[in-house]
Every structure is written in C-alpha cells, then in structure tokens.
Please model this.
Amino acid sequence: MPLTRLLVPSPFHALPSPVLSSLHRWLPLVLIATAALWLRTTELARRPMHADEANQAVKLGQLLDTGDYAFDPADHHGPTLYFLAVPLAWLRNETSLATLTETTVRLLPALAGTLAVLLLSALASPPTEPTANTPPHHSRLLPFTAAIFLTVSPPAVYYSRYFIQETLLLAFTLATFLFAQRWWRTAYLRWALLTGVSIGLMQATKASAPLFLLCAVLAALPLLLRRSPASPARASLPRHGLLALAAALFTAAIFYSSFFTHLAGLRDALATYTHASSRAVGETGHEKPFAYYFQLLAFHRAGGLTFHQIPFLALAAIGAFFAFRRHASPLLRWAALYTLLVALALSLTPYKTPWHVIHLVPGLSLLAAGAIATLRPWWLAAALGAFALTIQIKQTQLTSFLRPADARNPYAYVHSSPDVLKLRALADSTLATSPDAVIRVIATEYWPIPWYLRGLEKNVGYWSAPPADSDAALIIASADLADSVRPRLTGNYRESLLGLRPGVLCVVFTREP
Model:
C-alpha cells in the first residue's frame, strides 16, 4: 500500500474524483502547516528573553517610537527583522516600546519558520509525473515527509521562537532555491525576478547570505554539467540573470537605506563585511571545535538530560547514500552536496553559535524523507520514519517547552536566567511608592535588563562604572562592580542576588525607608 494512504486515510472515496484528488494533495500540507504554526506560536512569552533577543526587541521598539532606523554594521545584523515586525506590532495594537510584548516580537520568526516548512515542501514537489525509474509514490511522499521533519525539528522549532535573524534568513534562502528551481524549469521572467527579490531579502537579513548562495551553486554545478539538461532557461540566463541581480540589489537597498531615508546605510551594508570577517576569524569567546554542529545535532548530555537526534540523522545518512545511486532524484543529490558544503563551511569557521545549525535541517529533512520514500518494504520505511519522528517530537518538547531556558539545553546558548522575570516587579514595586524614584543599572553586562525595564526610561539610567553618587531607590549592579558601588551609598540598603545568565550575577540594592 502506498505510504501516501497512511498520510491521508481517506473516508472521502464517495466524493467526485477532482475533489478527492485535491484533498489528497492539499489536506496533508494544511495539517502539516497547522502543526508547524502551533509548535512555533504556542506559549511564546513563556521563555525569558535572551540578551540578543532583548537587544533587537528594544531596537524594534525604538523604530516604533520614532519611525527612524539606521543600520549599524558593527553590532547588528540586517534590518529586515525590524521592518517586517512593525506591521505585526501594529496589528496587535502595540505601537511603542512600552507596549511591545514578547509574543509580538517572536511572532515574526514563528511565521517565518512556518513559511520555511511550506517552502521546503514546494521545493521537493516534482514538476511532472514520476518516471519509469521512480517509485510511483516517491514524488508524492517526498514533499510531505520532508515538511514533517522540518516541522518537528528541535532546532528549527526552538529558533523559530527566537527574535533573531536566523529563521528569516532560512525562509528567504528556501524561497530563493524554490524560485530559482521554478525559473530553471520554465524560464519565466517572473521566477527570475522573484529569485532576485529573495536574494535581496537574504542579503538584507544577514551578511552570511552569500555563503549559502555559493554553496547552493557549487552543489548544483556537478548535476548541471553531468546531466546537461535541455532547460529552456539556458538561453535566457544572461538577460534574466541581470534582471534578477537588479531586483536583488534594489530589494537590499530598500531595507539598508531605510526606504531611502538613510542613504549612508548603503555604505554601511558593505562595511558590515569588515566587522563580520574579523568576528568570524578573531577571538570573540564563541570559538568552538570543528565537530560542534555535528555534536549539537547528534548527541549532547548534561546534568542528567540527554539531547539527541540520532534516528533522524541515521535516516538522513541512508538518504544521502540513496542520493548517489543511479537514477536517484537530482534534488536529493543536490541536497546532500549542499548540506555537506554548508556543514563544512560552518565547521571550518572558528566563530560558532548554535542557531546556525538550522541551515542544515532542510537538507537533512530532504535526505531523511528520501530514505523513507526509497526504502523497501514500505512497512520498514514507515516504522523507521515513525520512530525518528517520535524522538524528534520528544526532543522538541524537551528543548522548546520543558527546558527552554535551562543551561543544560544546548540551544539555550548563554541564556537569560528566569530571575530576569523578577526585574519588572522590582521596578514597579519601587515606583509604586515613589513615581519619581531613580533606578540605576550599574553593570558591565546588563542585557536583557533594558527590555524588562522598557517604558520606564525617565526613571532608569545605565552606567558602565559606578558614579560618584550612586544612591537610588533601586540599584542593579553587576557582581564585579558591587564592591565599588557599596562605598558610594549612603543610608540603609537591603541586598539580594539576581542571576542574569550562567556565570553572570547582579547584586540588587533596595533602599530601605
């Protein structure tokens, strides 16, 4: 029995054939997209804000407050995250930093993560009916299964709930691949222009965008040279390529120039590569061993918790083996080469952060889906797929819902402590008795404190060193500066400790009446 029947057990046999055909085609994808959206949007505000999230959310709030944005090539990535989040904030009636919420800022990457699932399914969809060398259910099963694996992927879900650029970059990258694929099959100009727009969005999201484009082209070259397909796109490549390039440059320019109100952003868009390259090869404290990303996906054990995706990786390895057999799907062969090239590029770079691993997940999902679509007998493929999906779902539950801010969670990278959730209550309690009270934050590292004290800017001040007069109604000092703060205080203060993130403590001085 074809595995697609397992995906859609059909009680609809009495319906007209066109309706039944549409249900078999679209119902699984609708269910998958619904599951992806639920996993990425439920309880978005539960996890404390990571320092990077808070920094970006405050920048979004400033854009809402002032309407102005200037790209910073030194300390921030591209501007799409902020500009695309503004309409969502408006729709939720959050029009300032003070009214902005965790749910709203995280909603954009959650939607991007769901879109990535749909884009991967479309990328895996065949252009024609299966060939004589392709199993009859292969072309129908591959897009759905790949989408399911991406839907429940632990890192893909986790970072789709994170207000950073990475998931947007993944979605724009998959859109680029999909539109380029459609252009290659049809030679229609609209697909070339959409490819260019998607490349522009990639570039306006993160400076690492060219890496993924280069890996994609290198992975496609052996297939194009070997097969020499008679694509109608070959003849139109020069003209369509130039138009796509123009669309990419224009799209990126729109965002970097803040819709042509800050033209210096175009210059800074190039300057970002100076900062990015020095960070990638320099000492930043984020250096990791070569096998870091493999370990992140394969197996990690800390403090009695085990994080792994071994069955999923085993299926992907089987799919990679099948990808290089005779008559294998060109898409699977490309996915294997692309994923390998991206993994090598990321692993060879000393600077490593765990969210980069999501760029390996779509390729691995395609390969795992290819293994299920190719393995015989079908019940063995179904059993292996069900086992892998069960483990993935359990791991996603552990990383995104049960332990999302736990230091043992490999995706919770130097994550903010749950203690930071106390900050707002401390400030509100202080201001309830004295609305004009001063709150001092004296710290060398203080993010995500500005996020939790948003809307209180008239009462809150930030110092990187203790001022001569450090007295205030409430003082939040980093532990390394607390000894310098104490001699500058007059009156009685109650002291308590507050964890900012692993290894970073703050001393809270509360003035007694």
Remarks:
- The first strand starts at residue 299 and ends at 302.
- The chain has 20 helices and seven strands.
- Confidence is low (pLDDT under 50) at residues 1-10, 129-134.
- The CA atoms of residues 192 and 240 lie 6 Å apart.
